[in-house]
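Below is how a single chain appears once it has passed through the pipeline. First comes the sequence as given, then the structure the pipeline wrote out for it. We keep one example in the README because the format questions we get most often are answered faster by looking than by reading.
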Amino acid sequence: MTYETFCGGIFETNCYPVQAPEGWILFDAPDGACDWLDSRRLDLKLLLLTHGHIDHIQDVAKIKHRFNCPVACHPITAPMISDREFFRSFGFELEIEPVQPDFMIEETPSRNFLGLEMQVLEVPGHCPGSLCFFSRKDELLIGGDVLFAGGVGRWDLPGGDVDLLFAGIKKKLFPLGDNVTVLPGHGPPTKIGTERQTNPFLSGR
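Resulting structure:
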């Protein structure tokens, strides 16, 4: 699988353009992603969101307008990108340009995205409706803010649940295989085997 990495915004959020058989797919849309895609001359055909925290969705509207591409997310994520005032209701002085998702994604053993077959795993705990996208053929997991190199997604934001987060990692991600590469929402790539053996948040749980 051919993919690139862009890190944008004050939270240094990763996004990943992936070349599918029928065009480029972008996973997440941090601040600056739209201009970067332009600079790379990538003809984007689809935007998929791992979850709806603001650092992952700031450029959704710009990307949709610029590339006229569909946007897809979990049903729980939909109000986070379509309601301008969503984050203010939780006390955050944050606002986005609203976008209506074009279709919804939920957990499924296999789904075709522009000719790319991926398993979709729902792993909440960091954020309700959080999705991970897994290519078994490529042993590659686009994991959002679930599992990091030496860390896990924080669970103290609205909708966070530490028990759901750790249970999801152990029951859904670890069985994918130790050799699977994880492309996380923040920080460098890692391997599931490395995190299973050495991640300080997961040992003893």
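The helical segments are 33-40, 54-57, 60-67, 78-82, 162-173, 192-198.

See the next section for the split statistics.
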